[in-house]
Amino acid sequence: MILLVIAGFVANSPVLAEAIKIGVVNTERILRESMPAIQAQKKIEQEFIPRDEEIKKMALQAKNLQDKLEKSGMTMEENERRNLERNLANLSREYQRAQRQMREDLSVRQNEEYSTILERTNRAIDQIAEKERYDLILQLQDSVYRSQRIDITDKVIQVLENE
Which residue, among 31, 29, 20, has the nearest Cα to 153 in the 3D structure? Predict the structure, then answer.
């Protein structure tokens, strides 16, 4: 909406059409493709590998208990079978809790890293805006059309990679 108003204003004023310089930035692409984002993702993956391994071990233990229960549950003593079922239920709850907690922690870490990258991105955008004398730079969301001429995402990514 704002862009349409600005475009209409610029189109009706030939003097201003040359004076106003507009750019757009695709922050989603920056968070996906820039070197700081890729490094942050690798760093987070390394942080969560031990927890992921623990969760995989729990899943394997639960599968082994389930297999044992299915294979020899009918021939076991009632007390032994109940203990095995209880252990399986406890392990299943622990697995689900650990999985949920890891997802939450992963989300928090990703948000921390992304906010840092977005701060750096904003500084890079400020640098580009000053250096190239932009009057307006918008964050690209879901635009129907934009000219590649006003997309400065590649420039921002380059600045971030040169930091």
Answer: 29
pLDDT score recorded for residue 147? 77
Query: What is the pTM for the complete model shown?
Result: 0.72
Please write the tens of the pLDDT for every residue from 91-109. Answer: 999 999 999 999 999 999 9
The tokens for 17 are 């059409």
pLDDT number for residue 3: 46
Alpha helices in 21-77 (DSSP H): 27-33, 35-72
**Cβ atoms of residues 48 and 42 within 8 Å:** no
At residue 115, what is the residue type? S
Q: Is 163 helix (H, G, I), strand (E, B) or coil?
A: coil
Token pair in block for residue 130: 């000053």
What pLDDT digit, counting tens, does each position of 34-70 carry?
A: 999 999 999 999 999 999 999 999 999 999 999 988 8
Closest C-alpha among 104, 105, 106, 94 to residue 59: 94
Contacts 24+ apart (CB under 8 A), 30-34: 30/117, 30/121, 30/153, 30/156, 30/157, 30/160, 31/114, 31/117, 31/118, 33/157, 34/117, 34/121, 34/156, 34/157, 34/160, 34/161
